[in-house]
Amino acid sequence: MSEEDDTWTADRKNKDMRMFQSCSSFELSDPHDPVLSRLATQMFKRTNDYLQGEMTAGQDHYVLLEEINRLVITKYADLRSLAVNLTKSINESNEKYETEIKPLLQHIEDIDNEMSVLEATAFRLDSYTKQLLARFVELLDIDNNSNEK
User: Fold this and answer.
1) Buried b or exposed e, range 131-141, using 16+ CB within 10 angstroms
2) Residue 129 has what pLDDT?
3) What family name appears in the similarity comment (predicted)?
4) What is the DSSP letter of 8?
5) Is the CB of residue 54 less than 8 Å from the CB of residue 60?
6) Do residues 64 and 51 lie in contact, with contact meaning Cβ atoms separated by under 8 Å?
7) What is the pLDDT of residues 5-54, one digit of tens each?
8) How many CB atoms lie within 10 A of CB 40?
9) Integer Cα distance of 36 and 42 in angstroms
10) DSSP state, 33?
11) What are 54-98's pLDDT values in tens digits?
12) What 3-state class would DSSP assign to 27?
């Protein structure tokens, strides 16, 4: 037998088998290894710390989300009031355009149309006066020629 087999006695093997028969049960009446108990306690404490940290992180995330939500609500409320004010201003401007500016623009358009008609009439009158002048000069030339004879 090897040295390792010599160190393990049948009694020791039986004791170890009794202690580690099941990993899922822990009975107070069963003898247990204090190192295993200490390691299990450390594992449970660390698992507890980990889970507490995860829960705290989750809670912190929810608090952050609530704060962001409040800020977004405030921002959108400001944007909504701005949009309402802009709508009111646009409606007032449209009303002012319809009641005050549009009639003035129509009046300017009417004056422009009348000026175009007046301009056309002035050109026709100028053309007519030039024709009359040409005929008058022609008549004067005819009278001057007949008087000279």
Assistant:
1) eeeeeeeeeee
2) 97
3) Belongs to the BLOC1S2 family.
4) S
5) no
6) no
7) 555 555 555 555 455 544 555 566 666 788 898 999 999 999 999 999 99
8) 13
9) 10
10) -
11) 999 999 999 999 999 999 999 999 999 999 999 999 999 999 999
12) coil
Give the list of residues 6+ apart from residue 149 with CB closer than 8 angstroms, or none: none
Alpha-carbon gap, residue 135 to 88, rounded angstroms? 68
Give Cα 95 to chain centroid, integer Å: 30
Q: How far is CA 119 from the centre of its chain?
A: 56
- Tokens encoding 34: 């204090």
Residues 6+ away with beta carbon under 8 Å from 39: none
Per-residue tokens: 61: 């995330």
Length in residues, the chain = 149
pTM over 0.70: no
* Tokens, residue 75: 């921002």
